[in-house]
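Input record, target 12 of the design panel.
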């Protein structure tokens, strides 16, 4: 299934919003980690969980998970 240009742009915007929310969350979480406990960098767990989600979301935006319709 080929994505229309409008659908590709819409999906791209959604992925960019997801990425921006993740980065903003990390901008809050990292200083919070250093205030609460400098010894243990627990913000890395958030990063480790969020990166595969953003990667999967990017693949979705490119149409990687869309099924092809037969005859097209």
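The sequence produced for target 12 reads:
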């Amino acid at each position: 299934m080929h994505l229309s240009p409008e659908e590709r742009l819409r999906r791209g915007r959604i992925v960019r919003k997801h990425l921006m929310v993740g980065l903003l969350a990390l901008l809050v979480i990292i200083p919070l980690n250093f205030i609460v406990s400098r010894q243990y960098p627990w913000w890395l767990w958030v990063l480790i969980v969020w990166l595969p989600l953003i990667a999967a979301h990017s693949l979705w935006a490119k149409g990687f998970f869309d099924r092809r319709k037969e005859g097209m």
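The chain has one domain: 5-61.
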